[in-house]
Amino acid sequence: MIGAVIGATMIVVLTACFPQDRIFFLGLHALWGGICAFADTTLRNFASCSAALAGYTAAIIAADNLVHDGAEVSALVSVYALINRMRVLSRSDVVEKAEAVVRTIVETYFAPNKWSGPRS
Q: Which domain holds residue 95?
């Protein structure tokens, strides 16, 4: 779950830093994926799983951001399911921080799409 939060946070940061520049966004996203893959192969146990989860969570959110102009609320249901699992398994301060990250994701998700250029 930590990996999902880290991956989601990273893609929100990349989207906020490069809202009009798809090349830099995709280049840094590829770099992030490479870092996560490297961490996945060098770390062990749960840390390895967290690194892999951070990489593919970022990829899922970025792909959704690049492809869809409209908001799909059903795509956010799994994020809220993760938060509910965290309520059972994690400390309250961890859950509060995760909820803050989810609020940022939701605000970014429902914000107007700022990508420039034609869509296919």
A: 2-110
User: How many C-beta atoms lie closer than 10 Å to residue 60's C-beta?
Assistant: 16
Instruction: For the beta carbon of residue 98, count every other beta carbon within 10 angstroms.
Output: 22
Distance CA 69, CA 2 (A): 28
Q: Residue 74: enclosing H or E segment and its boundaries?
A: none
Q: Closest Cα partner for 109 from 55, 54, 63, 72?
A: 72
- Asked if the structure places residue 93 within a domain, the reply is yes
Quote the CA–CA distance of 43 and 39 in Å, as a whole number. 6
| Per-residue pLDDT, 39 | 93
**What pLDDT, in 10s, does the model give residues 49-69?**
889 889 888 888 888 777 765
Instruction: Give rounded-to-5 percent helix, strand, coil for the chain.
Output: 80, 0, 20
